[in-house]
Amino acid sequence: MIINLKINKLIETFILIFISSVYLGSLNQAIANETPSNSSQNLTENKTKNPLNGTEWQLVAWSENQPLTKAISTIAFEKERLSGDSSCNRYTAGYAIQENAIKLGLIAATRKACPEEIMTQEMLFLSALEGAKLYTINAQGQLQIAYLKQKQIGILTFKPITNNNTPTTEKTVYISPETRDCIGILPRQCLQIKENIEDKWTLFYESIEGFEYEHGYLYQVRIAQKKN
C-alpha cells in the first residue's frame, strides 16, 4: 500500500510539471467560443493529426473520492466536437488537441433529472472534463485524460467502445431554418428538429456528423442512429 501511494504521488508530480511546461499558452488561443482557433494551419493540424477522431470511450475509473455508480459516462470524438452520456444527460462541446495536450470549449448538456447519486457523479464528471489538460492511450489501450480541478490533479480512465455489432436505425428528420437559444450547462444556440412535418419543433443539443447547417434553409435529412 505504501509503495502504491508513493508511485501515485510520483506520477501526479510528473503530470503537474508536464502540464505547466507545455502547450498551455497555445491551447488557450486554440479554443474560443466553443470552436478551435481560426488559424487555418491549426484547423488543418487538428483534422489531420487527431488520433481521437472517430473513437468512443466509456469511463471505468477516476480520481474522484467516490466510486462510480452503475450509470454510464461516455465520450465520443468527431473532428472538432465531442459528445457523450454524462451519467444522466447528454452533453457536447468543441475541443482542440495539440500533440498530447487537449482543451475543451463550452460544454452544453440536456437538463433531465436523475437520482441524486447519479446527478452528483455527472457534476463531477463534467467538471473534470472542463479541466482537461492532457491525454494519452496507455499500454492497455485505455484513454486517460489528466485534468486540473481546484489546483488538484485527477485522471479519467476510459475503455474503448466497439460499435461493430451495435444495431442502428434510420429515420428522417426536419431541421428548422432557425436556431434557438438553449441552456445546457451554459447558454448556446441549438438546432430545432422534428420527425413529422406537423409536429412542433424540439431543441436538439447534439451534432449530426457530416451535416453542415446554414441558417435560413428548411432541411429534410435522413440520419442513422445507433441504439445504446
**Kindly, what is the distance between the CA atoms of the first and last residues, rounded to a whole number of angstroms?**
38 Å
**Rg from Cα:** 19 Å
The major pleated sheet works out as: 8 strands, antiparallel
Roughly what is the average pLDDT, rounded to an integer?
78
Provide the succession of SSEs. Answer: HHEEHEEEEEHEEEEEEEE
In short:
The chain is α+β, with helices and mostly antiparallel strands and 228 residues long. It is built from four helices and 15 strands.
Structure description:
The chain has 2 domains: 2-160, Beta Barrel (Lipocalin), CATH 2.40.128; 168-226, no CATH class. The chain contains 4 helices and 15 strands. It has helices at residues 2-21, 24-30, 40-48, 116-130; strands at 31-32, 35-36, 56-62, 74-77, 81-85, 90-98, 101-109, 132-137, 143-149, 152-160, 168-175, 180-183, 187-194, 202-204, 219-226. The strands form 3 sheets. Strands 7-6-5-4-3-10-9-8 form an 8-stranded antiparallel β-sheet. Strands 11, 12, 13, 14 and 15 form a 5-stranded antiparallel β-sheet that branches. It has a two-stranded antiparallel ribbon with strand order 1-2. A hairpin with a 7-residue loop joins strand 13 (187-194) and strand 14. The termini are far apart.
List the helices and strands and how they pair.
Elements: H1 2-21, H2 24-30, E1 31-32, E2 35-36, H3 40-48, E3 56-62, E4 74-77, E5 81-85, E6 90-98, E7 101-109, H4 116-130, E8 132-137, E9 143-149, E10 152-160, E11 168-175, E12 180-183, E13 187-194, E14 202-204, E15 219-226
Antiparallel strand pairs: 1-2, 3-4, 3-10, 4-5, 5-6, 6-7, 8-9, 9-10, 11-13, 11-15, 12-13, 13-14
